[in-house]
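To illustrate the input format used throughout this study, we show a single complete record. The first block contains the structure-token representation of the backbone; no residue identities are included at this stage. The design step must infer an amino acid for every position from geometry alone.
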């Protein structure tokens, strides 16, 4: 990951699709991984973090909208995955992430409200030490962050709005 090597003082978030073969690189560079939704990847992240003597912060990606084109664990399976990942010694589950349906503000609000409600339910079920760090909601991107923030987003992913010269609101 050349950018992280060029700016070692920066805190890098990994927001893309996790590829098994790249997990060691991701863990070496990322402060926070936004897109974890498979236990097998969590176990590999745990192993890579152990080799680096670090605890890797992650967010569990939830497909709240149920869109086939979106990645993420189903909402009904999210609590079990959070508990399984939280049991790993070199991974810390910091919260949840979702992507809303594109181009529909009402559908985005519904997805974000659903994620916030799910996070509250999961937090209530976690042991105190895990609940204390389960505080993040990564939701909202350049086109729908205005819907996400009032519903509890703690992280918005607005790179295109900042870095793309062709982006228009």
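Output of the design step:
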């Amino acid at each position: 990951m050349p950018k992280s090597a060029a700016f070692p003082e920066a805190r890098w978030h990994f927001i893309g699709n996790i590829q098994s073969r790249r997990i060691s690189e991701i863990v070496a560079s990322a402060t926070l991984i936004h897109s974890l939704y498979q236990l097998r990847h969590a176990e590999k992240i745990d192993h890579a973090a152990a080799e680096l003597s670090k605890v890797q912060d992650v967010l569990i990606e939830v497909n709240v909208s149920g869109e086939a084109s979106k990645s993420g664990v189903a909402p009904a399976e999210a609590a079990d995955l959070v508990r399984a990942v939280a049991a790993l010694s070199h991974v810390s589950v910091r919260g949840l992430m979702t992507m809303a349906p594109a181009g529909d503000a009402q559908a985005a609000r519904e997805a974000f409200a659903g994620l916030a409600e799910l996070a509250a339910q999961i937090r209530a079920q976690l042991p105190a030490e895990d609940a204390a760090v389960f505080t993040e909601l990564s939701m909202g991107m350049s086109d729908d962050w205005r819907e996400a923030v009032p519903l509890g987003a703690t992280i918005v992913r607005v790179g295109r709005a900042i870095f793309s010269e062709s982006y228009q609101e």
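Structural context for interpreting the output: The radius of gyration is 16 Å. Residues 142 and 158 are 4 Å apart (CA to CA).
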